[in-house]
Amino acid sequence: MSTSGIQSPPQMTRERAIAAYQDVRSRSDALTRPLKTEDYVVQSMPDASPVKWHLAHTSWFFEGVLLKRFAPEISEFDPHFKSLFNSYYESLGPRWARADRGLLTRPSVDEIAAYRRHIDEHMLHLLDTIDEAAFKEAAPLLELGLAHEEQHQELMVTDFKHLLALNPLRPIYHEGPESDHAKTPAPAKFRDFPGGLYEIGHNGDGFAYDNESPQHKIHLQPFALADRPLSNAEVLAFIEDGGYQDFRFWFSDAWTLLQQQGWEAPLYWEKIDDVWHSYTLAGRCPINPGATAAHLSFYEAAAIARWAGARLPTEFEWEVAAGRVARAEGRFLNDGLLAPGPAR
User: Fold this and answer.
1) Is residue 179 part of a domain?
2) CB count, 10 Å around CB of 262?
3) How far is CA 75 from CA 34, 59, 67, 113, 281, in A?
4) Alpha carbon separation from 317 to 210, 254, 312 (Å, rounded)
5) Among residues 31, 321, 322, 329, which one has the fewest Cβ atoms lying within 10 Å of its Cβ?
6) Which of 141, 159, 149 shows the shortest CA–CA distance to 9?
């Protein structure tokens, strides 16, 4: 996810709101610019969505949640869009089936681009001219809409990468390495956390979705967490040790799925002339052993952890550990980074 610097509603000024809106919307457009028109339309699997659907859906949200409420005099861009581009908001009307989104060859990509321009024009006018009382009422909804679009930026990258990876031509989305080459990291060290009563959940500062609150207490047993994420080198060691062929490391339903689908390595990995490669947005590349492992399912991550004599942290353990990091560091979209960095 990106770090757009959106303020919590009481602190969001009109100027900040306009700047944040322009920033988030322009980033969605920039993400899709390297794609060809045909890439916008195809749906690679039922759990994915076409790129143009994401672009329309995020615009539909601003139209249905903000413009309809605070500028009702503005006509709908197209009355069909409210059902075509609704996802799971049952209170906002009927929805087109998710698995069938790839059948929507119309509206065209050009029409979706015109729809986004239409929404942007009216949203910026609304934010500039709305009275102060209405602006304060609209600010939390705007913040939600921007976080929602950032969420779909992540989904767009996930979905179009899966689509491009299925193409035997192995299309290149952008030139250059996905991440800096890194040497195999030293063995992970484990940091101990004492057991006890902890507070988890949203504490009221900054944006959060409704399912992140209220803050509440939970009791944890003592646990330890690795001081770095899993590396590709460790995934390679798991593969070479026969981890994908050893049922002892897998949950029962995971083992069944592995056999049904023929898993031999993580998603996007393939062996060429005895060398493991991975499809990246920069094309097919040899595996970087020092990079952070990516595209592991929960089942694979759990199996590798068990093979290593450990387990995955629970949601609560991870939140407690993450909350004790002085400063969140990562690879964010607004830095132009679309893949994990070194495992360190």
Assistant:
1) no
2) 7
3) 32, 14, 10, 18, 39
4) 21, 23, 10
5) 329
6) 141
Which residue range forms the structural domain that includes residue 139?
Answer: 9-166
Determine the number of helices (DSSP H) and then strands (DSSP E) in the chain.
10, 7
- Residue that terminates a domain, selected from 131, 150, 166: 166
Does residue 127 sit in the same domain as residue 201? no
Based on the structure, what is the number of domains in the chain? 2
Instruction: Kindly state whether residues 152 and 222 are assigned to the same domain.
Output: no
Rounded Cα distance, 119 and 77, in Å: 8
H or E segment and range at residue 256:
helix 252-261
Q: How many CA atoms lie within 13 A of 101 on its CB side?
A: 28
Mean pLDDT by 10 residues, the chain (344 residues): 47 93 98 98 98 98 97 96 87 84 97 99 98 96 97 97 97 79 85 96 86 94 96 98 99 98 98 96 93 97 98 97 76 81 85
Strands 269-272 and 283-286 turn out to be unpaired
Nearest to 279 by CA among 185, 160, 155: 160
Tokens 């002085």 belong to residue: 326
